[in-house]
Amino acid sequence: MAYRALSAALGLLLFGLFATPSACTPVGRGSLEHDVEDLLAINKRQGGVFSVLGVVGLGDKTVHPRLEIRELEKNADQWNVYLLGMYRFQNMNQGNKLSYYQIAGIHGRPYIPWDGVNAVDGGGGGYCTHGSNIFLPWHRPYLALFEEILYLNARQAVLEFPDGELKNRYNNALTTFRMPYWDWAAAPPAGEGVMPWSVQRPTISVVLPNGTATIPNPLFSYTFRPISRDDFVDSPWTTFPSTLRDPSSNEANAASRNDLVALELDRMRSNLQSRVYNVLALQHNYTEISNDRRPGDSIESIHDVLHNTLGSDGHMSYLAYSAYDPIFWLHHTNVDRIFAIWQALNPDSYVVPEANPYSTFTAAANSVADITNLVTALHPFHRNDAGDFWTSESSRHTDVYAYTYPELAGLNPNDTSPLVSKVNTLYGPKPTRPQQTKRGTSTIAGAPNFSGQRQYIADIKVHKFGLDGSFNVYVFLGDTLLADEPLGGSDSNSNSNSKQWSAAPSFVGITGFLAQNGVTNVQKKTQEANGAVPLTAALEAKMRAGELRSMQEDVVSAYLQRNLRWRIAKTDGQVIDVDAAPGFQLSTVWAEVEPAKSAAEFPKVKGEYRVLIEATDGRPGGFHTGD
Ligand SMILES: *[C@@H]1O[C@H](CO)[C@@H](O)[C@H](O)[C@H]1NC(C)=O
Ligand SMILES: *[C@@H]1O[C@H](CO)[C@@H](O)[C@H](O)[C@H]1NC(C)=O
Ligand SMILES: *[C@@H]1O[C@H](CO)[C@@H](O)[C@H](O)[C@H]1NC(C)=O
Ligand SMILES: *[C@@H]1O[C@H](CO)[C@@H](O)[C@H](O)[C@H]1NC(C)=O
């Protein structure tokens, strides 16, 4: 197979890089481990505690923006420094606690202590907090840790260049370097897809001290060195030698199908745009936007659908294994960016004490998390030599880690109108190019303009761990899916068909539930999670197409009754009958909206959301009279 031949060629290349004795081994490991040990020694105390300080820990306190990956790529020097840093980082010995492997392993498997932070009674799983009010702050020091060690590796790579102009340029590139994010919700540059080519290509070109070379792309996958059966316990995770996206099989020679993932992302992007816009422009309560436990949309729920789609039954779609895929870091940096923008727009709403149903490695189920106390520490991230941990309070502002985001750089906190304008430009109402599909122009549109003064959303709730793995709920507005795909909730058990659902002209959007298999805890299995698929933009498009008379609730209700469809598929494509999904319910809700008066304002929701009962009454999984 072509893929295997390529791997063999890469193996030879790697062997060449590592085995050739040379005065300046370009991406060697020996000297790197030595440097990391130095860093550890600097930070070492009695218990060997590592203070997670972000790039501040490397002596760089100046705040610089993390750039969108395509922007970073435009700066050839920073791009090269980034790739060399990622490559070295991934080649660190897996036994080192600052290796890519062990840092990725903090999130989920292996469920073992990191930096001496031990499990508690009643704890379980990895350290990451999900379905929790501290889901967003927890990932902040986590990303800062990754950024610091990435930066360190990049710096080491530059050190190996001979003195001269090129080295000076790379050192200069480092002074403002911060790790990039990938914006999967804004319209991509004209002619490009949502998923950058730089993360899809198996190899990539870099400049090494002795010239240009093609290396295995560190943004394409992480290759285990080697895979550990003890750490990863179950199949196929003990089988795959590298991280995979939409794996072609469960065998060791499975290939990533980034092309299929990219296609799915292109089809769902405009609905993601609506979701990001709704959260930033219309939702103002931190408790509600931070996690998926309450009806309506949240940053966590939006985050889940990306995990599921990027993984499509590969590493990203399993909580315990997701952080090994390098795209995890690009994705989560964007999640952190959306969080930071939301914070700037809503500076007074933040973590309030709340019990979280899921256990982590260091917290029992139902522990109350607030912004400061010990139980609520963002384990296992120490913040100083005394062994104190980061908390939601100390991680509240990104400046402490010496980074910001382009939309927030130089923002006067007393005047957020420039930020509102930027959010409107990136995610707000504007005509987006209609999507051409094989069967005509899709109804998918960008964010709504609320000219009908109404917002409509399909709210979905379900037991998150009820299906033994991650799954997606697809929402459609229209009579047919595809010609070869008869409509109905349970008429088909073919796994391949669900992969075509997003190609249907009637497709509106997906909400995903990131879970994992093998959960036996009853309480976990019955825990409700929520997601949303906004309908307003799609309904406005139906109006433009003459298929819907008005945005009035009675008209829309009758329209939805005839046209709204929903279906469920697991991330491997297996179709799940709506009735077989524990706790599943889809309800359509609406509210009056006051449209924005200018590009520097947001629309406003007036009053409460109300359920449009008739739209779903009497249908499997729908909200019924009396619910
Ligand atoms: C650069 O050096 C590496 C090993 O140090 C070698 O494998 C590679 O072929 C060299 N590249 C060029 C362009 O000379
Ligand atoms: C925020 O949402 C939570 C949960 O719905 C609610 O209990 C709380 O009162 C809300 N806070 C404000 C300020 O509205
Ligand atoms: C914001 O307003 C406060 C209170 O009026 C003021 O003290 C502060 O200097 C202002 N900040 C900026 C950056 O203008
Ligand atoms: C908003 O969308 C509606 C319905 O699609 C369209 O008729 C109208 O011109 C748009 N309004 C603005 C201000 O763009």
Describe the structure.
The structure is a single chain. The chain is an alpha+beta fold. The protein has 2 domains: 2-186 and 200-239 and 351-395, di-copper center containing domain from catechol oxidase; 417-616, Hemocyanin, Chain: A, domain 2 (Sandwich), CATH 2.60.310. 32% of the residues lie in helices and 13% in strands. It has 17 helices and 16 strands. The radius of gyration is 24 Å and the shape is globular. It starts with a helix and ends in an 11-residue tail after the last helix. It binds 2-acetamido-2-deoxy-beta-D-glucopyranose (4 copies). One 2-acetamido-2-deoxy-beta-D-glucopyranose (NAG) binds next to loops. GO terms for molecular function: metal ion binding; tyrosinase activity. It catalyses: L-tyrosine + O2 = L-dopaquinone + H2O; 2 L-dopa + O2 = 2 L-dopaquinone + 2 H2O.
Would you summarize the structure shown here?
Residues 130-147, 325-336 form the Tyrosinase copper-binding domain. The chain has 627 residues and is of the alpha+beta class. It has helices at 2-19, 30-43, 69-74, 76-90, 100-107, 135-159, 165-175, 229-232, 258-282, 286-290, 299-311, 327-345, 417-427, 522-525, 536-544, 553-563, 613-616, and strands spanning 64-65, 203-208, 211-216, 354-356, 367-369, 403-404, 436-437, 440-441, 454-463, 471-477, 507-513, 528-534, 564-570, 575-576, 585-594, 604-611.
Whole-number total of structural domains: 2
* Cα Rg: 24 Å
What is the arithmetic mean of pLDDT? 88
**CATH homologous superfamily classification of the largest domain:** Di-copper center containing domain from catechol oxidase
Helix content: 25-40%
User: How much of the residues is beta strand, in percent?
Assistant: 5-15%
The secondary-structure class comes to alpha+beta
What name does the CATH topology of the largest domain carry? di-copper center containing domain from catechol oxidase
